[in-house]
Amino acid sequence: MYFGVDYYPEQWPRERWETDLQLMKEAGLNLVRVGGFSWSILEPEEGRYDFSWLDEVIKVISSYDLDIVLELPISAPPAWMLHQYPDILPVTSDGRKTGFGAQRHYTVNSRNYRDFCSKTASALAERYGSEESVVGWQLGNETVHLSYGKEDQVAFQSWLERKYETLEKLNEHWGTVFWNQTYSAWEQIHVPAEIPQEDNPSMQLDFNRFWAETHTNFNNKLMRLLREQTDSRQFITHNLVYSGTVQEHREIAEGLDVASFHTYPVLADVTMPRQPAAAARKHDLCRGTKQGKSYWVTEELSGAPSNNRTGYLPRPGHLKLWTYQAIARGAEAVVYFRWRAALRGTEQLCQGILDHDGMPRRKYNELKEMTASLQTFADEYIASDFPAEVGFYHNPENEWAWQIQPQSAQFSYEEEVLRFYEPAHALNIHTDMIQEKDNLSAYKVLIVPVYFLTKPALNEKLKSFAEKGGTIIFTYRTGVKNSDNAVHEKTLPGELASLCGIEIHEYEALPGDGTAQIKGTAGPMKNRSGTGSVWADYIEPAEAEVLAVYEGKWFEDKAAVTKNSFGKGTVYYIGCGLERGLLLPLYEEIFQNAGLETTRLRNKVELVQRETKHTKYLAVLNHNIDKKEEAELPDGKWKDTAGKEKDCKGRITLAPLQSIILKQHKS
Amino acid sequence: MYFGVDYYPEQWPRERWETDLQLMKEAGLNLVRVGGFSWSILEPEEGRYDFSWLDEVIKVISSYDLDIVLELPISAPPAWMLHQYPDILPVTSDGRKTGFGAQRHYTVNSRNYRDFCSKTASALAERYGSEESVVGWQLGNETVHLSYGKEDQVAFQSWLERKYETLEKLNEHWGTVFWNQTYSAWEQIHVPAEIPQEDNPSMQLDFNRFWAETHTNFNNKLMRLLREQTDSRQFITHNLVYSGTVQEHREIAEGLDVASFHTYPVLADVTMPRQPAAAARKHDLCRGTKQGKSYWVTEELSGAPSNNRTGYLPRPGHLKLWTYQAIARGAEAVVYFRWRAALRGTEQLCQGILDHDGMPRRKYNELKEMTASLQTFADEYIASDFPAEVGFYHNPENEWAWQIQPQSAQFSYEEEVLRFYEPAHALNIHTDMIQEKDNLSAYKVLIVPVYFLTKPALNEKLKSFAEKGGTIIFTYRTGVKNSDNAVHEKTLPGELASLCGIEIHEYEALPGDGTAQIKGTAGPMKNRSGTGSVWADYIEPAEAEVLAVYEGKWFEDKAAVTKNSFGKGTVYYIGCGLERGLLLPLYEEIFQNAGLETTRLRNKVELVQRETKHTKYLAVLNHNIDKKEEAELPDGKWKDTAGKEKDCKGRITLAPLQSIILKQHKS
Amino acid sequence: MYFGVDYYPEQWPRERWETDLQLMKEAGLNLVRVGGFSWSILEPEEGRYDFSWLDEVIKVISSYDLDIVLELPISAPPAWMLHQYPDILPVTSDGRKTGFGAQRHYTVNSRNYRDFCSKTASALAERYGSEESVVGWQLGNETVHLSYGKEDQVAFQSWLERKYETLEKLNEHWGTVFWNQTYSAWEQIHVPAEIPQEDNPSMQLDFNRFWAETHTNFNNKLMRLLREQTDSRQFITHNLVYSGTVQEHREIAEGLDVASFHTYPVLADVTMPRQPAAAARKHDLCRGTKQGKSYWVTEELSGAPSNNRTGYLPRPGHLKLWTYQAIARGAEAVVYFRWRAALRGTEQLCQGILDHDGMPRRKYNELKEMTASLQTFADEYIASDFPAEVGFYHNPENEWAWQIQPQSAQFSYEEEVLRFYEPAHALNIHTDMIQEKDNLSAYKVLIVPVYFLTKPALNEKLKSFAEKGGTIIFTYRTGVKNSDNAVHEKTLPGELASLCGIEIHEYEALPGDGTAQIKGTAGPMKNRSGTGSVWADYIEPAEAEVLAVYEGKWFEDKAAVTKNSFGKGTVYYIGCGLERGLLLPLYEEIFQNAGLETTRLRNKVELVQRETKHTKYLAVLNHNIDKKEEAELPDGKWKDTAGKEKDCKGRITLAPLQSIILKQHKS
């Protein structure tokens, strides 16, 4: 498998390159990602290309037998280009044209920008498309930003015209009759901007769709250009982002060979590593992007992150732990950000594997030791199966709808999805990220959290899934919106009401201290009580059984959690942001009833089971920074793949931040 | 009396109208407010009017025998208009032209906008001015926003020229000599905008006056247009706003038949209902706008409010309670916002009497039951007298002066005025909102809180009021400013010093933890102690008696509360934001000394006494959400107007959120 | 010595002037600062000067035998000028041209503005350059603001061209290769502005340098104009600002006769006076600006400060205390802001010695009493020596580098510098503010806090200082940056590593609760423990001795505080924001080892020793507001200069806010 680094030779004198490459080689690395910020070198003035520097870079790297991923340099167009073609500069939502500086100072809706990108991509493909050491291309880097200028508005109007064909249809789908916003000409349509009150949510969702499609189309155009001019041996990827972005990851990745993303368990303004389930979910998302195949980590944190503020310094063991988590959850390659801390420019305080002084030390040694211990079995390991019997729904459009209307001051999409993901992780249940297009028949349980913006196709699939015996977990605010991001006229939970066997007539963002008292009344919740937060759906059971109710004067007869039989299956509805103490035993019983085996893991311990035809693998990861912790191993004797620990069975104790991968021959 | 709803037929298919109107009729409603957001339907392109849709709306509504208030559609000018005449779009205080979207996307200073409004108003008046079922017109909707563009600047300059005639006078009144801001031409004058430091406060106050007058003039112009073309039978109103707005409510309402306003005891970002005195004060304000007559609630909250955040869900009983509070305090009609939650557009998550699914349920049934119980006596009740012996001063200009210079980080105009209003409410004392133009002779006590920006006419009236035996309560920061919003040269409290019998030489926004220790020394405050907050005037008594002093090293000899005899009257001065525990006994003694009867009501219980020649009415309202509470009834036997409770006397107990209106024949 | 006031005769009627001047005279004042905001009066329209008003002002003031400082009126250019030449208006960092209003509404990069200033300065110099009563000129007032407009950008580009000569050099020094920001033409260079991510730190530092130099050059130009046309008897100064400003105080003051500044121990948003060391440090800064000579306070707070919020009301005794602190620490004149509170305009709520009503009261009486008691000895006192054996490093460029990259969310330059200054103050150690140009040989100890942006010249001086036996205290983040504001390639602390005898391989902004546990292991820290905050350098001692270590799992073997012998000297390195409880004993031992005498002063008691050939002076200042406090006097009998207290020796007790200056004849 590939272990690589992000390397910026343009930042270092030619005489240093050999030292760096020698050190990389010795550390067991076999891949280098280069080129992302070198446009001014490759095209120093309009139309004049000069590849001598990149030729030399590639020559030297390959002389050390390292493979290369070439990143197109399009994240940061050169100063000369922006000065000559200021239409490329993006515009903020309050109408301000942003200046040159940092990166991503362009709008994809500028034809000039797109033309420059195409020409440069072609020139690079022509030159390096059959270069032996170039094994792949990266098209875009974290392309997540929007722009609100004149060019963007015109493109939005055209996109809308293609989508709706007539203004009558657009007015109807957007409900412009509300507050008299009926359009009588396409040019009247604005981009969402800072106005005295909120913009139309249907329009806002379409603006996000427009931007996601714009990014996808631009990516596809570059991809086709490269396909035509490069060896089929060379793969193509794109560095994706999975939080709070206007990106349709599956769409953008569809034509790519590899889905890849950056993972930063801490950031400059995140002062402690987030809980392991948060990173696990991101890995699941990237693994699911191409249905479990072809997934890389293109940027794995290697030192303290920093912009003008500096973040948490990863402790000894973190680099290995995060790498193990990545490959255990499906990554086929890990590329570290970055080889060495820059001496100059914006992100100069952000650390790398080497620090500013270029001396190999702790982080380098950790890396070296880790690659050595992985060498013998990594290829077999990453080819093993990741069996999952639980599907977890995530769709960017649903996230956008929540971002447009968060509804509760306490609501955070990331936190609420994590609320309903984490107990599965804590019960040692593997999850796949699913969407409406997926074949769901392999799963026993589907978790469909905060399913606010509904998809008719998914609604149908879920009904059929339950009918055939599957188990589904829904949560508050299910079934509220149709695909126009308008409210369904059906009684809540709308299209899902019969599936859940309930109706909801009253609901609210929880007032006062933001919590409701919940009393369990049946099943796994019997005799348990606790709190719910963020939101309360006051449920009227129809066919469903009540598992928990709200306590309090006015809505105390209302259900908080229900369970319904539908066909051969079972459907749960959780009406509020249920606290973990109640959610964990509920999930446990749901999984067990669905025939899944669960284990209550110790806090911040993560287990991942993989297998090949003949071998079982078990990754055991202690994410606790200051605490040793135990893990219960499945039956049988296990062997440490790194050969450091002796064979073990039963209960083992891990040091703080210890991570091991065990294996066992199937009998 | 009228019970109505805000209805938006444009949002629903024609076939639903009949269902809605039938349901309204059955709920006991007799009025519908329509038309506010239908400009694009009525004038689909410039100059082409098409009233067929509105004809149909009116025909169908009147076929159900419901009366109609027509709202002019001018809050939301159509997309085509703004696209063709972009000068209509408003400009923010940081110079950004805001885009189309939401509502109120216009500046009244645009001649184009005003002309379009006049033409449309005329066309509507011509068509519906003698329509039987149309009983009234609403001219403007919450017209509270400012604009800072070129058109506004030119209008401001002309307004200033009319006001001051010469630049010499303007320079003098504004004190432009400070920081060398002398103007030598009218065109040099800017609008207040975001500049490195604060703008001249005299200029800022004039800018607010200019805007208030601009709104009033525009309203009057439309009013005159309608008067000319409509039956005198049809009344004219305007939906006012009473918090934090640049509106001269009395001026704008002067030519109107009815003053009306919206009341939202909770909002999307107010998670629990505000204390009952807060809503009571707003009702007093609207009742006082036309001196106790012709006051409507045009928007009464009926469900959970929501923008992109959702607020508190009113509990069973709230709708009735708030309606009872409104009519008890003088409202002659109540119109609920809104009939049904919208499926599309910006405010789609805001609830109505019906929710998105259009099914009549709890809220509908509450409404229906309430109108039924009010039917028999409501007309008599709303015609009864609301006797008040205490006047409470409020003038928008004073509020603006405080907004321009809040002086203390703890200061909030709403909260501080409420501080000095609430104890009267808690002592079962009726208050009228008064201004300098009013005849004050009927009152025994005047409360004049945070009287910062003084009015010479009021100063004189207050002196004469006290001389004749009246009682006045002043608070901190009295008498600081003249009508230029400049500081008086006289020793504080300026023109009011002799009236109060004190001087103030030292004062401050309270530092450290923001409180001062207060020790009562005489009268009702003797042997009491507590805290003051927000501000401290360190008072030097001249003729006044000291009731309380500050404790602490440096200013401990200074008075905090004083009492002065002036003529036959008595004048109190409260030098800090006195805590409720001290304010309540002080008010009690003041009222009793002035010959008023007081009752200490239980927490959040409200009593309102009304009467006709032969009958006494008593509204008893328990605003406690989760707590039953007692109320002491005045002498005699009382009968429940709704006929539900049996006759009662003495002490009664109300369920949480229970509201009743009792009556008694005068003997 | 001079005691003066800031007086604005333009705000008051001519007939009041005599009253004011008579009161000033009686209060013992002998100087008036006038003219700063009178440009519209002096030049009512372009090119037409009218000095009759100022003639009269000067005539009347001198008739009372008060001396005059004339402030150039350039802080607030007139409305007519900005209307005719809008290029003068400044532009914010987000590209918004700010409107007229308040003050400082100009950019110095406007040639029009500079020309108007020169002409006006010349005209004033010509007229008053030999005026007897005019003893000095003030050129600029708090000139601290930046502008980001077109004129500024062009000036910045020219400045860069002068500095770097070629784009190759600029690209290299700025490291534009990072994120592909290479410039190929000077016109491509932007000003730092709000962009999606942070701007290049090298560019940002250069932008600050450009602005500081721009202000200095403009000041020098005016200075030369005045020098040519005025008597040499008249001095020239500039009202400087010492916190968070883009000002090179020493550069701007180099050609001036007097350095002066404003001091505000409380402000509208600072609700309690800052600790005495904070003001002491500001006084040290201004005294150091011209190497201990010619330092004035041009604005000393006299009443409660206020913008639209009002701040702390200085207690009786504060005015005297702050004056005593100023003259004890070296001020040769104190001018109070301001004579009387303005009735109109922006800062109308800010108090003066007289309040709005113009009546002399408490503050006036305090002032009068104080000047009387100072009269007899002030001239001798301010001429006495201020002996300091400790130098404290401060360089604006280092402050700017921190502002550009604060690195830790807890970091505040002011607070962190104060952390390392205050213990010296508390140990009764005098400090001088030093820079790399200074002769350091007179000092025994140098404190060089947060020395992030290094200066090669200083590095060399520090080495030689230590070699010869001096003691140096360094702190965390020493030696990180070179003068390009780029990171040094050498292992930390870079050029200072051998001097400190350490290396630093790991470091971080402290995560979690932001503190680290520190355990003392040797010397003064032995057996002490406590916390560090803000930042942690995990130190590897080379030659240095370890005085304290970090506790905690991962970096517990790392040093937190070290001590190194270098030549004949000693060098300390403090790796974190050490808490005061640990810093104080450490400083104590360091000073004592260096041969300095220390005294642990009581909390908020300040002592200042001065001396002439024959006399010792001792200022004893109790900054405690509510608490009397003791002070230990040095040996011998002391006499109160004000003649109020009897002779004293040993321990004396001061009332809250009491301040006295004692003297003793040298034997």
In CATH terms, the superfamily of the domain at 390-593 in chain A is Class I glutamine amidotransferase (GATase) domain
Question: What's the number of extended β-strand segments of chain A?
Answer: 25
**How is the main sheet of chain A built?**
11 strands, mixed
Q: What overall geometry of chain A do the principal axes of the alpha carbons give?
A: globular
- Please indicate the percent range of residues of chain A in DSSP E strands (runs of 2 or more): 15-25%
What kind of assembly state do the chains in view correspond to?
Answer: homotrimer
Helix content of chain A: 25-40%
Annotation field: number of helices of chain A: 18
Structural class of chain A: alpha/beta
The CATH architecture classification of the domain at 390-593 in chain A is 3-Layer(aba) Sandwich
The chain pair with the largest interface is: A-B, 55 and 62 residues
